[in-house]
């Protein structure tokens, strides 16, 4: 299933009329229609209302809402409401709530509050999804199912403990295999019975939330939790499918969110959708990367932008307004990277409770006479005019960056060599270097075959700390056959159980990279060194410095400082088969990465554009045309030197080559026919 | 009842002879008498001693102490000792201790440790108060009852849960009303039975201690806790009144302490008393404001300064000494703002346990040969010489600032727009601007009638976030009849249940203020803008910037920076009826507030004095005379230009008009006959 | 027993072959032998393996390991494995795990995880030690027993509560005595039954981990915990002694580690051993002090350096590499201060779990071709060549600094006067001043007799806050008979129960010091003053300033700033009997301490050397020779002016007087025959 089947750019978002008296509903219909909003995401948090007790379902209000939306020609994304438990359930069946990292069983509160392994929760959750599908699955304008909401979190209750042991048995068969995998002889942790295994929280093997006595155990608990919650998703999905065979089913993801292995999740989802909430100081490149990741988890398929705020957030420390034009530019940035819907949280701003200061299309002022409403409506009209030709367009990337939740978890559980090492930050540093040159990038998993990798000129895998089975072989084969691979310090260190490859770093990548890393030095924050590329270009490096020996590779850069490892290799290149493998043994400052990416652009001749930091140029392709999004993400006027004549689908004007002036937050969407 | 009935300036403080062998008592009597100390506050923490078991009271030691004090002509403030549970009670009746925010029931420790809704604690507490009143209520020199000590804190135990549900039933009658009030349909929180409601701690709807899924619930729990603890107070008060009809009853408050709604408390107290513990870096204006608040909670009545330290604190991070003369100047600062007693914690310094490094009149040196003792004694003599003419004098303020615990709680539970927003800080910014000009200010509650407000030229209500029933009408009527009202950003947003007024900010104040606030922008800490008053005076603003439309008001100041809202109104004035309403839409730096207050002084002609930052001039009035306290709060020599001839009651010298030189920490108390 | 009986410099460390397949063992033997490693510390974390259930012991693997080591001529330090519980024990007997400060009983995880008062743990622990001794105690190459590992931590479970009450009865006999000792009448804490006493954790009288309502209780709980865990040690020691009468028994200590009173512990240990893990920014003087403390707890006896890392740590925030030569220089620094063994954690680097990035002699590269291996082997050869003449050599110090765990605990529980006051930091400031002049220092307990003290020219006792019984008398007698004593602010304040001495600070030291401290002023961090020595030398002081009166002493320095205490004494000297007593009433900056120490060197003529900060010169003595360790601790080339001709035992060359050049991390070990 694809976003194409929506047959329009869905433009709408979360809508909770059940929280309002009915007279408000009619006003909403008028205002939303005026803004060319064509979609409403409903029933996200109504469980307590539609199921007031164990045995009773009451869809009367939901019926009314759906009727009203239908009459007013809205497409509906229908949620299942299981993102927050009803209070009665928590009170009558205490098992349905979670036990936290501190070891405390919760009573009732918040959302994302269900124990994923509670049989009672699972029973009620899938029953509700089935009931909803039975009632509404046949409706034409129910165009998408939205299961639960922003899944995440952990539980450490006794039901989870029991399920974890079952999960372990399934994955390892024997306790011996578990002991082996987790290297439990360390600190005398050998298990003789399954009942001796407890979850890694404060009462067990955790050392705070970010560290663990037995990282293998903690990583497996992460996998188990991601799987457990995914099972909640598939429970409901399967229940829906009993009554509705063909409406796409999704749940809203959250970019680089740590808890869930979205590559694994996306396999179970018909469409990916996600919620984009950058802060005032989030780099533009980080938002772009998050979009690309959300496209990447589903193999490049366009996705739904399920939520963004029209202007203001409420839960960030400093909730600044989106500037005039900025919501529009951010919407097109999403689209540029693969979004085929533009949806908001939410259509009408809440009156009370924790999100009441979260912006909405219809604000507390309850009028269309607001800047936010006007900008939303203008975008609605514009998208309406854009038609559907962009739907399904793909991103043509020759560079891929690997992203992997197992690595994310494992690297951040590692005790040593430095507390500054954060997985997403490392990925983003490389992504940003390509982004600054407007080179298209795909985010990919680590388990692609050499054949799947072959479409890329270059595969970049920063901190590929954990090498799972097959990964090294695939990469080796990919490079041997002409591919190019770049990785960094803290790569090739451990297997899927977090056990180090013995015999010299970077373990199974050593031959491919042609280097042996003997030691890595952690620099404290106040210390940095320099590297020199080609005996001429000096750049700062910090945090970690590998001390390595060339085993076939040649040095691209050497440490020009660094005490006893001065003049040893810092960045290397290895000719391997028909391809090349690069190794970056230290954290290069942005200018160093720019230099490196510049060299690669020279080598591969990728499409790229020199722009100021604020401007991005992003391309999506249909069979017969390319669509270039030229976006000024910032508040200053910018210029771009443009080389491809085409048609701006927004201004409906032809665009010639030459200098383009870009007002603050300006967007051009230039169609270039192939 | 008033402080006048003490017939002297009580000068003394906490005294715990039961912690010492008797030979020490006699030495104390000599030393304290030498310092002209005329009062002792006793029995504050003796519960374990005077009630060694469920059935036995033993007042023998207390009898001895009271006899000794009486023989030595001391007035007695008699505490009830219920500020700390006896260990035997906690051990035998575990319900009497508290369950904390983390969900843990405590065993025994600290003080302020009783669950306010424990029936066992309530039973024993009021029984003890009654027994004490029966024994000592008839004594002439027991001039005041002091119930418990520094009440505060929270409990989340099952007794409190049960009591909370009863409290809710009383306030809301039906669960529907609760669901409505708390907007529980948000995140599907709808309650169908009272038993589904749990307190907002870590196991419930809290999001940390400062945030909440359902702010309405958290605010109500604050109200409930304040009421529950107040009930502990009235339990004991009523028990005392059965045996003692006319001795004033108080408990010691703590200024801007967040936990208790002191306006509600003061209604139940005969006299207000409070404990003043500024840090080395507390602004003088903050201490002044705290005094004014303590006067304000009881409608302007003079109060007792129940505790201050003679010199050093122990529980602050850096416990610096009060400089020579500073204890005296701070005592007179208290008096200037309404204190009619000067009391210390404590008369003799503890030997052991957590407060042993807290200063006292008689220090560990156990002698009168200390600076602290000499300064105390000198003040004792001076106060003795001052007589009683100041007792009961009132503060003549034409400006009032509203302070409200519901707003305090609600504003600080709000998620968004910025984590920097703190209630007391906002109040203090305005207070300090008037203080810098030595303009007298009353701190008042929000529920005064238009008639009660009419005595003020100007009512200032910073961040009047929550508008409870009647408040807007009172303010509107007050202004219509010639009053002047000033409020700020984050005002008029929510009703008493924290639900937003729909239809445009500032809600019920919109017409009065003549502005519509469409948006508010949160600036991160590194960002600030400028506003310009009258096209000429530029001042910095930061944190929050309202974007507003004039609806009858005129702009007093506009943003001269601020990107898209540059040149829009930042500060406005609205002529309304016979009065005016001002709105300050951003956080002005001190100089901006000074400019604004300067304009108001010009407009209203209030009595004011230009002094350096360290000097304050404060007035109290009796029928026939005004008393001016001219205080140098700082360590440098200062000058004041003085315009009212009178008599300095401290130096006993006539004071002519002209320049007055003020030594460090100097005080003049000038009587000007009317 | 002494380190002499090892008859060699043990050179080896922790070795865990049971965590590896056997083929690895044989490689290890080859590599370790190549590095002249002669010792292995084994069986540190094998409890789960050697006792797989309640009734079964399985020493087969351990037998094999010992056989292999024996065949390869290794000396063995044999651990008892009780540093980490087996999972089966935690699961079947939940009492064996700990209840934490938060009040939570733990399931299973980590290490140091046994409740010291669990009868089940105690039973199994001592049974295991006995079994091991029975099996292995007769072996010639088992040269030392190593009980458990890095003992520490606290437990607050019900078994501990019960044991604490027993401990209290033993120490105080009556509850009255407890109430008296803890001054429980404060805040009405009087106990009437033993069952009312609870441990001072979050559910009791703790105020966070660093503060307490009743410091006397918290200090006693610290004593009780140290004693409880010591009892675990003596349990096992006594069990071993039933089967092995003469092999030395130790456990590895941790320098200034707070939890355990190592002076008390050392009395029960045959030899002291310890683990030295400085961070990249630990001052050289701090490491030196830690060594001296470990020598001091056993009255000056040489000790074992049980653990250090060959290069990299893993659990520090920034785990930088030891520079080439630095592991060697740090090994000799240990030896210079009394170490007679050089041992590593560990011989082979772990594959998995939390310490896998902790360095080892054989790294993950699994080869001798690493810098770390080469440096280790070089040191092994060098030590081999050094022979045994250094074994047992003593440190000839004329200066002693008192260190005391009761003071450590008590001072840091004190509420006030400043949160900046940390015990070890205060000790180190004085230690560092002597270290900078290369003056030898002993760390001694506070309970030495005047006769024992008499060997020192000067006894320094920074922040001698708590004066236990006899201490003041001993010091007074020591000075009266010609000794010299120096102490500082925050001294002489409380007795062993943390109750203040009434009558004037510094209490029982007042006569000896000839001063009365009336007040102490805490300066906030942004504030500092100056003191002037002899009207000429000005130095900064901060944090705390005593205000004192001379009572026989004369002022060596006065405050030249300090507002009202300007020109009052800051540092004093009192001639007392045939000796002198010095008092330093404020925190002097390093230059001030250097000046003071310089004056003392002039007065006493101690052996000292002017060196750069990085260089230390340290002496150990045998009967017929002195051994001078000249160590460049830093990475720069240094020079030293050397005045004693001798023989460098490392280079095997004669050393003449004159300028010695020192390469980075260079070491000279010069034997000067007496």
Structure description:
The structure is a homotrimer of 674-residue chains. Chain A is α/β, with parallel strands linked by helices and 674 residues long. Chain A folds into 4 domains: 10-155 and 227-386, Glycosidases (TIM Barrel, Alpha-Beta Barrel), CATH 3.20.20.80; 158-220, no CATH class; 399-604, Class I glutamine amidotransferase (GATase) domain (Rossmann fold, 3-Layer(aba) Sandwich), CATH 3.40.50; 615-673, Immunoglobulin-like (Sandwich). The first copy, chain A, contains 18 helices and 27 strands. In chain A, the strands form 4 sheets. In chain A, strands 10, 11, 12, 13, 14, 15, 16, 17, 18, 19 and 20 form an 11-stranded mixed β-sheet that branches. In chain A, strands 5-4-3-2-1-9-8-7-6 form a 9-stranded parallel β-sheet, with helices on one face. In chain A, helix 14 (423-436) packs across helix 18.
Short description:
Chains A, B, C: GO terms for molecular function: beta-galactosidase activity. Chain A is an alpha/beta fold.
Number of strands of chain A: 27
Helix/strand/pairing class of chain A, anyone? alpha/beta
CATH topology of the largest domain in chain A: TIM Barrel
Q: What count of domains describes the coordinates of chain A?
A: 4
Task: Give the DSSP E fraction of chain A (strand runs of 2 or more residues).
Answer: 15-25%
Q: Any idea what the shape of chain A is?
A: globular
What is the alpha-carbon Rg of chain A in Å?
26 Å
Number of helices of chain A: 18
Low-confidence stretches of chain A: none
Distance between the termini of chain A: 26 Å
Keywords (chains A, B, C): Glycosidase, Hydrolase
Protein name (chains A, B, C): Beta-galactosidase
Enzyme class (chains A, B, C): hydrolase
Organism (chains A, B, C): Lapidilactobacillus gannanensis
């Amino acid at each position: 299933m694809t976003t194409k089947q929506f047959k329009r750019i869905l433009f709408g978002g979360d809508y909770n009329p059940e929280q309002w008296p009915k007279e408000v509903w009619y006003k909403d219909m008028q205002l939303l229609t005026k803004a060319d909003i064509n979609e409403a995401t409903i029933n996200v948090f109504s469980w307590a209302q539609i199921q007031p007790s164990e045995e009773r379902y009451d869809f009367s209000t939901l019926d009314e809402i759906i009727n009203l939306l239908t009459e007013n020609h809205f497409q509906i994304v229908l949620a299942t409401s299981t993102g927050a438990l009803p209070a009665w359930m928590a009170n009558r069946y205490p098992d349905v709530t979670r036990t936290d990292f501190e070891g405390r069983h919760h009573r009732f509160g918040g959302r994302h509050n269900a124990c994923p392994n509670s049989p009672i929760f699972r029973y009620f959750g899938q029953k509700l999804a089935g009931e909803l599908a039975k009632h509404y699955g046949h409706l034409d304008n129910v165009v998408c199912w939205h299961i639960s909401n922003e899944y995440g979190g952990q539980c450490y209750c006794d039901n989870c403990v029991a399920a974890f042991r079952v999960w372990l048995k399934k994955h390892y068969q024997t306790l011996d295999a578990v002991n082996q995998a987790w290297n439990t002889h360390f600190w005398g942790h050998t298990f003789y019975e399954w009942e001796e295994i407890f979850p890694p929280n404060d009462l067990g093997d955790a050392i705070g939330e970010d560290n663990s006595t037995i990282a293998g155990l903690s990583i497996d608990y992460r996998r188990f939790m991601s799987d457990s919650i995914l099972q909640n998703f598939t429970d409901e999905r399967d229940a829906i499918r009993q009554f509705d065979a063909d409406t796409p089913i999704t749940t809203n993801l959250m970019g680089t969110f740590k808890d869930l292995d979205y590559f694994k999740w996306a396999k179970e989802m018909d469409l990916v959708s996600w919620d984009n909430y950058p802060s005032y100081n989030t780099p533009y490149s980080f938002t772009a990367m998050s979009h690309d990741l959300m496209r990447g988890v589903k193999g490049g398929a366009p996705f739904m932008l399920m939520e963004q705020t029209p202007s203001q957030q409420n839960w960030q420390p400093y909730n600044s307004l989106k500037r005039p034009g900025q919501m529009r530019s951010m919407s097109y940035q999403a689209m540029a990277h693969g979004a085929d819907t533009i949806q908001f949280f939410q259509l009408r701003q809440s009156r009370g409770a924790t999100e009441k200061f979260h912006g909405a299309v219809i604000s507390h002022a309850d009028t269309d006479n607001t800047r936010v409403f006007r900008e939303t409506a203008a975008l609605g009209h514009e998208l309406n005019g854009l038609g559907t030709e962009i739907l399904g367009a793909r991103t043509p990337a020759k560079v891929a960056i690997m992203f992997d939740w197992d690595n994310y978890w494992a690297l951040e559980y590692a005790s040593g060599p430095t507390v500054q090492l954060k997985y997403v930050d490392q990925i983003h540093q490389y992504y940003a270097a390509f982004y600054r040159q407007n080179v298209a990038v795909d985010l990919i998993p680590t388990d692609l075959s050499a054949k799947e990798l072959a479409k890329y000129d270059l595969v970049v895998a920063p901190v590929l700390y954990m090498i799972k089975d097959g990964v090294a072989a695939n990469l080796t084969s990919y490079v041997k056959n002409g591919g190019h691979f770049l990785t960094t310090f803290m790569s090739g260190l451990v297997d899927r159980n977090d056990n180090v490859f013995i015999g010299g770093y970077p373990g199974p990548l050593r031959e491919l990279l042609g280097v042996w890393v003997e030691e890595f030095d952690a620099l404290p924050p106040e210390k940095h060194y320099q590297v020199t590329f080609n005996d001429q270009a000096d750049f700062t490096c910090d945090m970690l410095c590998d001390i390595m020996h060339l085993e076939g590779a040649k040095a691209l850069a050497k440490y020009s400082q660094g005490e006893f490892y001065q003049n040893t290799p810092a960045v290397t290149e290895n000719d391997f088969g028909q391809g090349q493998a690069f190794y970056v043994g230290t954290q290069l400052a942005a200018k160093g990465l720019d230099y490196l990416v510049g060299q690669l652009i020279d080598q591969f001749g990728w499409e790229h554009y020199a722009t100021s930091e604020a401007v991005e140029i992003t391309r999506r392709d249909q069979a017969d045309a390319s669509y270039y999004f030229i976006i000024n993400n910032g508040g200053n006027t910018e210029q771009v030197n443009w080389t491809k004549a085409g048609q701006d689908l927004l201004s409906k004007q032809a665009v010639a080559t030459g200098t383009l002036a870009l007002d603050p937050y300006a967007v051009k969407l230039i169609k270039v026919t192939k």
